[in-house]
Design a protein that fits this description.
- With about 1100 residues, this protein is of the alpha+beta class.
- The strands form 10 sheets. Strands 6, 7, 8, 9, 10, 11, 12, 13, 14 and 17 form a 10-stranded mixed beta sheet that branches.
- Strand 24, helix 23 and strand 25 form a beta-alpha-beta unit.
- It is globular.
Amino acid sequence: MAETGVPPAVAATAADEPRKTFKRDALMEIEARWQRDWEERGAFEVDMPEDDSVAPEELHNKYPKWMGTFPFPYMNGPLHLGHAFSLSKIEFAAGWERLQGKRALFPFGFHVTGMPIKAAADKIARELEMFGPEFVVPDDEAGAVAAAAAAAGGALYQFQIMQDQGMSNAEIARFADAEHWLKHYPPIAISDLKAMGCKIDWRRAFLTTDHNPFYDSFARWQFTRLRDAGKIRLDKRYTIWSAKDGQPCMDHDRQSGEGVGPQEYTCVKMRVLEWSDAAAQAVAAIPALAGKRISLVAATLRPETMYGQTNCFVGTKLEYGFFQAAAADEVYVVTERAARNMAFQDLSPANGQVVRLGAIAGQAIVGTKVHAPLSCYSAGVYVLPMENVLATKGTGVVTSVPSDSPDDYAALRDLKKKPDCYGVQPAWVDGYEPAPVISTTAYGEMTAPALCDEMKINSQKDRDQLAKAKAIAYKESFYNGTMSAGAFKGQPAQEAKQKVRELLISSGDGFAYAEPESPVMSRSADECVVALCDQWYLDYGEDAWKALTEECLAAMDTHGDETRRQLEIALGWLRQWACVRSYGLGSRVPWDPACLIESLSDSTIYMSYYTVAHLLHRSLDGSTPGPLGMAPADMDDAAWDYVLLGKALPAGHSKAEALHELRRSFLYWYPVDIRSSGKDLIRNHLAFFLYTHTALFARNEWPRGVRTNGHLMLNGEKMSKSKGSMIGLREACSRYGADATRLALADVSDGVEDANFEESTANTAILRLYALMEWTTDAHKALAQSDAAPEAPAKVNDISLRPAAAPMTIIDRVFDAEMDALTIAAGDAYEKTMYRDALKSGFYEFSKAREWYVNATADAGMHPALLRKLIVRQAILLCPITPHWAEHVWRTVLGEPASILDARWPADLPASADREHSALVSAGRYVRKVVSSPAPDVSGKVLDIFVARDFPAWQEDVIAVLRANFDTTTARFDERQVAAALASRGPLGGKKTTPFVQEIKRCVRCVGPLAFDRSVGFDEVALLGEIMPYLQRILGFGAINVVDLAGGAVLREAQARAAESALPGEPRFLISSAPAGAVASSG
């Protein structure tokens, strides 16, 4: 076996006791070596240039920079492979930008703001009280706990989650202190990211909240300036509320329902037009209802679908109440639970007051005729029975849109089929057919009926199937639907949702309503409601601010149309956002210290903090001072105003010089060049990120780019801890090594669709990287031999070289051109952040080209100059994705003194219009086609290769017509002129003409006018003649004849038939048993 630079201890172990993991372990030893080297050298610590002679605005031109960021992870657990996938986009980009000669900065921080850490710490504290320091669940509870955990799909208690991470009970007990979380998980994350080989400048790392007083001053300054700019306002907002306690019920106040928030609905008032007989009797018996306007009130999450209402549903076994509304003459028919929530939302006569005027059974309401606002059935619709209406969700009244809701469609279909069975009169359902509301690509205008048919749902009793259909229908119609009815016809359903809601409310036909997402019980045993309370909010969506942010988005590179589309939608619907809370970890609101800045709201412009963090402090919590000797108190609002906004410092400021350094650093690194994130953050964090930048910074400091990716699956399944299909980052790097993990992460989808990490790909990557390392080592040894004796051939194991002075053959030149072409393709992919394509060109196809070259030169040997170029090129191509492997080849194998991290992308690549280069690449494809076309197992037979030099005259006529009638400015053909010109030329190619015309048009649309030029670019006969030894060795024929059809060869009948369809660049073949030389004239 060739030497590979594998550590002797590993090699010895492999020799004494072979292990299946030897190759992986060898690669991991190499990774550990270079990680130590990079850390010792500070390889990823990037600073602004120390050149005071250059004005800040000119620094970027003289010293190009790049700054990429990733949303800092929340530190309530270790990082997993999903984190690694999203951050890998910035990691690979940082490697690419370094190869471009830029100062590439990849900073990283840790988010600890918000409720989850504090809530989890409080859970541990409660569980210590319940179960003691050993967390012993009493025997009489253990069975119920196990059953509940199984039903929940994971651990029921917080201590069980920690136990699953391998922690001892003594260690778990320490997590009852929220601060311990901040000390425990960030160092683990740093260690894991270093083990992955990430190019992160760790000097700039920090924790959020007041645990880092520097960041705390930054977050508080940000909020002060947003309020000064009128972006933060005070208004009533929804919050979880305990009526018994008379205050908001935050997570730490809850007996159950931690993490549950308000769910907002649009309530639709369905005014009673005509009571059913039973209901009329009940109403007449309640004097307080006399003269009142009574409405059944339905709560919906889909107001945009109201145009398709055909009826409404009630639960026949539920009890409803007549509740006094805020307006004296108005009464709502809803459940008691809904009325209790409404009482705290200004929807009852007085705050917290529930006024019940009477009760009525759901069954009695059936048959009542009501007005359905916006419905195409404007004369009214009927109240019908439904089996699965819940009293614990919404108002107990369900408006029915059977074209969009599978549940509604199944129920209405049952009632139509068996009206007697359900106590329904035919007149209540006849003529009420599903009405088109939303058109989708997948299911047309009748999403629910189509899904019910597709999934074979036969009844409203098929609840499991209906739940699946509902999820599909909602996703398809909301994200991909277009309104096909109503005032907003033609608009995306996402955009129409808010507009229809506002229309219903402004017309008086609806109102806003909220209730807890799921039951919440306070510690005082009170079932909580949602109340409207005074809250500070960010005024996202305000017209002028929105317009400015849309301007920012329009100028940005979103690295994909779908990301731009989703951001445009997010900016369009985003409205007021509650930005403070009273529980958890965070920074105090400057003007209201009893409140904390909300977790998404302190995380919008922290990328600017990265530009100065390393100068302020050198520890996560800010306790270790930075090189400027600044204290947290030095960073007051005036200091941040100067550093980030360029406002003048107060005269005689004691820290003016240090602040000047901070200002220069900010100006050099800003703006952010790219921010990469999972697509789930588009509708909140990324939208906030854009909004806040436009509110505070100048246009030249707005973000330049945003990139999003889908979620990561594992082996084709959604990652889930409960199902065991979750891999932590540490586990992945331990199982496969860093480079194999990175390569497998690169080898997945780069778009917004969900990606799939295949463990088999990671395992294969280990084998490929190890084999290539061995081959490269042998190749370099052969080069060393050649350098020592350039006039002689060289050979090491399977590596054979010609003398260094040997001339370049056509095969050499083809391979050289292919290396350049694949390098160009990989560079284009890296630039577009399409890493799967970069890996395809720079590794997989590059490896195939190498294997072909080795095989094609097996007789004479490879050219030393090309082999050296191959090794260097492969190392550079893989450097962004597998930096450890590339560094090993660069410094250990090639013996380069400097790191490959400081190398440059090849600058001697041919231009895209280089005809010679293009011809050589075409020649390479041609050779492979020739080799792959004839059938195998042909020993002793003869192969005739027929080469044509000219295209049929009729094809040239067609191309001339198409070229003459193509407008290069509009990239369109004048179809009338094309048809007329072709008709005037007679039959041309007969039936072949139309397909040929369409093919040429398709090619022109793909590559432009270059498609009109079909010249091959090389001499086919000469090429085949030069590679004849290779062809004979690979194909194994007894003889090979190259027949130049332009040379007037006399052909036998079989040869003539075979040669008839030959075209330039597309030879034809004939295998026969005829003796060699049977062709009268051959090339």
